Backbone:
């Protein structure tokens, strides 16, 4: 698959051939779903906590005698039906993380990149060089390249050459900057456009190729 390469002025400067093993792979929807579910599960903190019957205050003794009152028998005021009583079957802290082999994770990424490429959502960029950090200028450039869509911009690395671009893109409402080595299936699938500089493409090929 051959794509045009643009600069930050949205001018075509060259073209590039995308590697077929990454951008024309076999699409496995089930694998993509599993990878997405794993990522979302691993993002959960699992710190939710509620007090159960043994943890609430008070109610240690029998509130009233067993017989003769005409009321239902009670052994404690810690029961869930009483105000201040313990909760039943409510969440406690737990680990939601899921395991997935590296080969499967990378195969899911290749599937997602293939889907994005087939939907013509990829925009290739020659470089991220900016003479100075200007958020307004970068916003104009991204709008010229991708319109008003939600954009994912892959960054090759935290080099000095990319410093002004990274500073300029931190506060953009419709653009998310992400290190290419941290490419993940969620950010790929929720983005309308994916901007990939040539250096970031080399990073992707280094571990998915």
Residues:
């Amino acid at each position: 698959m051959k794509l045009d390469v643009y600069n930050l002025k949205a001018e075509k400067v060259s073209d590039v051939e995308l590697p077929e093993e990454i951008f024309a792979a076999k699409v496995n929807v089930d694998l993509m779903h599993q990878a997405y579910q794993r990522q979302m599960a691993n993002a959960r903190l699992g710190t939710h906590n509620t007090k159960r019957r043994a943890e609430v205050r008070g109610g240690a003794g029998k509130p009233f005698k067993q017989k003769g009152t005409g009321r239902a028998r009670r052994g404690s005021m810690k029961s869930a039906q009483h105000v201040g009583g313990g909760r039943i079957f409510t969440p406690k802290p737990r680990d939601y993380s899921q395991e997935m082999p590296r080969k499967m994770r990378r195969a899911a990424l290749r599937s997602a990149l293939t889907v994005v490429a087939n939907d013509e959502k990829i925009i290739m960029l020659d470089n991220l060089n900016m003479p100075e950090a200007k958020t307004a200028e970068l916003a104009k450039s991204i709008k010229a390249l991708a319109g008003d869509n939600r954009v994912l911009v892959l960054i090759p690395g935290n080099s000095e050459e990319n410093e002004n671009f990274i500073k300029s893109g931190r506060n953009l409402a419709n653009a998310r900057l992400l290190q290419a080595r941290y490419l993940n299936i969620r950010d790929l699938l929720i983005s309308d456009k994916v901007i990939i500089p040539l250096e970031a493409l080399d990073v992707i090929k280094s571990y998915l190729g």
The domain at 2-27+100-208 is CATH 3.40.1370.10 (Ribosomal Protein L4; Chain: A;). The chain has seven helices and six strands. The longest strand covers residues 12-17. The radius of gyration is 27 Å.
